[in-house]
Amino acid sequence: MAARSTRGPLGLVTAAVAALVMALVLGLAGCTTTDQASRTPASPQDTAATAPEATPDGLSPFTGLPGRLGPVLAVKIDNVRPARPHTGLEAADLVYVEQVEGGLTRLLAVYASQDPPRVGPVRSARESDVELLRQFGRPALAYSGVQSALKPLIEDAPLFPLPPEEAPAAYVRDPSRPAPHNLYVVPEKALAAAPGADLPQDIGFRFGAAPEGGRPTESYAVGFPAARYGFAWSAAEKRWLVSMDGTAARTTGGERVGAPTVVVQHVTVRPSDYRDRGGNVTPYTETVGSGSAVVLRDGKSYDARWSRPSATDGTTFTGDSGEPLPFAPGPVWIVLAPR
Asked: Can you give the pTM of this predicted structure?
């Protein structure tokens, strides 16, 4: 009886109401699904388009300029007074200033756009170079000598070590200069000994028009315990002219050394586990981490923050807005100044 009563008039009304309710529920469900889809956050691929872009294809990620993009060659260059003037420094895409023993400095020049006839004088590598060069993939490194305890670290690093004993044809000595400040590398021959050296890749730099703000700056000085650097803005040349220990830096060809962008990157410089031949502790410059920086470009100085999460990451420089601070296209000097 109960089963048959559901098929009567009341049962038909109940069934109709139930069907109507079900239709409304399904309709609402469909609307809800569509609304949720419209509110779904954009995928990483969608949001990436709004982020600052890397250097476009055809331009160097080191300088932001068009031209040749050859294999990356880094050269460790002596920088005590008897080693000056330098040779080939004006052709470098990047020049890093690093502290070494006794509070002095050496230069790590990076080449990819040009291969000058020779570069130097070449001196020994340091532990800090291994970490610094990781962001370049697997570059070639020209240097002369290394502490015996450090040699395995250099040989095991993801780079092509090119001391004179590995590439003797790539080095020449200048008899007119005193040793050890008379050894020079020929980039073309050095790269021939490292045919697998990587091409330039993104190391975090961004190039473009000058950002808003900044302080008008005619000159800027950076001090190390036993070395001084000065950068004077030349409006005529649109670059910062470099001085070392109070003397204008020139190449052996007489050209003033300079760059459109200079970065003063404040880093931790601590003792390493290695010593030089005289028993002096070798400083270790930490380039992984974060900190403050000053970016010089277009006659102005900009406060910035630098960040490099790991050794394989590039180094980004951001301004007050938190957005990447663009460099002026052209060679860049990076002074790794003690905090």
From this structure: 0.84
